[in-house]
Amino acid sequence: MKKFLSIIAILVLIITQTACSERGAAGGATYSYAEDWLLNTFCYIKSFEPGQEDILKEAFKLAREYESKLSRTVADSQIVTGEYDAETEALLKTALDFEELSGGAFCVHLGAVSALWDFGGTSGGPFVPGADEIKEALSAQSLDLGAIAKGYIADRVADFLRSRSVNTAVISLGGNVVCLGRKASGDDWAIGIEKPFSGGGRLEERESAGVLSVGPDSSVVTSGIYERCFTADDGSFYHHILDPESGFPCESDIVSASIAGESSCVCDALATAAVVLGSDGAAELIESYNERCGADYGYVFIKADGGSIVSPGLFYEPEI
Length: 320
Ligand code: FAD
Ligand code: MG
Prior knowledge:
By secondary structure, this protein is α+β, with helices and mostly antiparallel strands. The protein has helices at residues 2-16, 53-70, 78-81, 86-101, 111-117, 131-140, 149-163, 264-277, 279-293; strands at residues 32-38, 41-47, 169-173, 176-180, 189-194, 208-214, 218-224, 229-231, 237-239, 254-261, 298-303, 308-310, 315-318. Helix 2 (53-70) packs antiparallel against helix 7, helix 5 packs antiparallel against helix 6 (131-140) and helix 7 (149-163) runs antiparallel to helix 8.
């Protein structure tokens, strides 16, 4: 898994680099880079100025503090103990707003259900739980911010970097990418979107479905059913984005949803909701969110047949 994520991270890196060399005129490095394994995923930060490694490491320390506060798998996290500080309370409120806006497709109460499936392998999974176990876990209504917290943390890391005068950088926390500032060339940031299920299971052969161009200070977040997934002995396919009503993997026409916009937290919540809702419902949700908040979130949905649906105004170039 680590290897695969590194490959995807490298793909994003390659695409986001400026055309100029990675070495300055005097031969010195032109960037700073740090990587870490946290939130059960591969994360990296690349700043387009040299000598900022210590700041990037501090940013990871901050991300780790958020992880211990917001994780459902950390025994004394605020999510587990229920002792929320004002910040966690505000994030919970945001998450609950998305639950309402999405008609329950985005659901913060699936903690016990996700723990049963254990797609992340934290307790030796993944497993196929029994229907009775799922019913019981659904009624437990236990909190899980896994579908929004990575985006929230990416936003806080971006704020921290800005406060330390890191002005141009790419932050990648798993599938959550934040492009900080404007590229020196003035060009848009170009983010590679992974082709779902590409490579026939061979990690090193996964491909890009296309490239999404976004302006300065933008985030792109992708949720998909092709990453934390498995095929059982009887041939049934299971993935980690759950239908909150049944507690089983959701079924929709979307295989991956990439959302682009200002806040990585909002992109994260919308991306998960989109996969559950399917393309029509998801487009409606995003349009109504934009209208209500005066925002400008865009989407690329990749469908099971490989086709893509792109929101008006977003520049996405599919690989041919
Ligand atoms: P997203 O679509 O953003 O989120 C999907 C995840 O949200 C699912 O894995 C599930 O946890 C939950 N979910 C499923 N269906 C829904 C739904 N309908 N509505 C809302 N939420 C849903 N993973 C581990 O395996 N072990 C860990 O210890 C662990 N710790 C984490 C701590 C933090 C603070 C965070 C943010 C994540 C952690 N993760 C951990 C990863 C997490 O469980 C999710 O797998 C990950 O955030 C999924 O992100 P995604 O972008 O792939 O998918
Ligand atoms: Mg999400």
